Amino acid sequence: MAVRRTPRFYFSLRSPYSWLAYRDLLERYPTLANELDWVPFWEPDELSRRLLAEAGGEFVYTAMSRAKHLYVLSDMRRLAADRELEFSWPVDREPCWEIPHLAYLVACRHGAGPEYVAHAYRARWQEGRNICDRATVARIGDALGLDADELASASDDPEVRREGVEALLAIYRDGVFGVPFFVHGFEKFWGVDRLPAFAASVPLPVRADAGPLPVGAPGRTDEGHAGGCG
């Protein structure tokens, strides 16, 4: 009999839709949130792309058009207002997305993946800070009581890079083309508005009104538009 893999949530610290899905998941489906594998999704730099290709994978995401970007700005205002959320739209100048996402993998090693995600999302989407700035990641490390330099320099560590390639391979193998993206068995769900359908597909005693978890997400370690973002 084939082994069924743990249901997975592909999230990106860059994506505003991932941020909303993260909040909805914790507030509406906390039991489910604790049972998922949380896999970071990011646009790899040249080194990660080379390592990914050497491992037999590729990154299939394509950057959004200007028209889609303008749509996302308007759409996020609506979705945030529906949730009574205020947010700050950050400005990304020559970002290196390995910096915050590989730092997440390091935080997971220390059992602080959930807290790192919470702090990183808050920094980016509520405080408008640049999470690709190593100083921002170091401050998150300090706030979590972790080695700030270890988190800030995660992208320089060959071992962490290799772990990151495993995440990129999972993205490739699951056919993830945008985020948030949920996978359960052979079923795939793209977009924040697909979260209820994903939750319904997982046989857990999950209640949509179960209330929020404590601070932090649980975590274990395009084309078209459906509430997904590139």
Automatic annotation (TrEMBL):
Domain DSBA-like thioredoxin: 9-200
Enzyme Commission number(s) from the entry: 5.99.1.4
Enzyme class: isomerase
Catalytic function, reaction form: 2-hydroxychromene-2-carboxylate = (3E)-4-(2-hydroxyphenyl)-2-oxobut-3-enoate
The organism's place on the tree of life at top rank: Bacteria
Region annotated Disordered, chain positions: 211-230
Active-site residues from the entry: 15
Residue ranges, compositional bias (Basic and acidic residues): 220-230
Keywords in alphabetical order: Isomerase
A GO molecular-function descriptor: 2-hydroxychromene-2-carboxylate isomerase activity
Family (UniProt): Belongs to the GST superfamily. NadH family.
Protein name as it appears in the record: 2-hydroxychromene-2-carboxylate isomerase
Source organism: Plantactinospora soyae
